[in-house]
Design a protein that fits this description.
The protein is mainly β. The chain contains one helix and ten strands. Strand 5 and strand 6 form a beta hairpin. It comes from Streptomyces hokutonensis.
């Protein structure tokens, strides 16, 4: 499997197509001086599933990490659903992609994703959005959050 992920102003999936606005962001300005600092961007991703990865269960995990590798929660835990500790606060999805009747042996499937990142981060500095499938990181996008005054100087 392969994947690409990047930060953008807005992303949407419609009819299995990925629509993106304001793509390839790696620098964000915080609107607040004191922490926590709100961010409101999207992660747009494209996962390529090879022929042999169809018709079997997979687990997708999207996480936000600071530059020290500490997780910044993207979600609030559901008390009725227990996740492994390393996946708490992440966006977690299970999927099983079937093969279309139009596919030929060896064809890949493209799976577009749009994930809102509307959270409060604790500090200014570097962050990474990580995309894992079945426990392997396939892609990541890094960005730096700076104070808004630094952006206009």
């Amino acid at each position: 499997m392969e994947a690409t992920i990047f930060i953008c102003d807005y992303a949407q999936v419609n009819n299995n197509k990925l629509y993106v606005t304001g793509a390839a962001i790696n620098l964000l300005a915080s609107p607040t001086v004191e922490p926590p600092h709100p961010i409101n961007v999207w992660a747009a991703a494209l996962v390529t599933l090879p022929w042999q990865a169809h018709n079997q269960p997979h687990r997708l995990v999207i996480s936000l990490l600071d530059e020290d590798g500490q997780k910044v929660p993207l979600t609030v835990p559901d008390p009725n659903y227990q996740l492994p500790a390393d996946q708490e606060g992440s966006v977690v999805a299970q999927f099983n992609a079937g093969r279309s009747a139009f596919m030929q042996p060896g064809d890949d499937t493209l799976m577009p994703l749009a994930i809102p990142l509307s959270v409060q981060v604790p500090d200014l500095g570097g962050y990474k959005v990580s995309l894992e499938i079945d426990g392997t990181e396939l892609a990541s996008a890094r960005f730096r959050l700076i104070g808004s005054k630094r952006l206009v100087q």
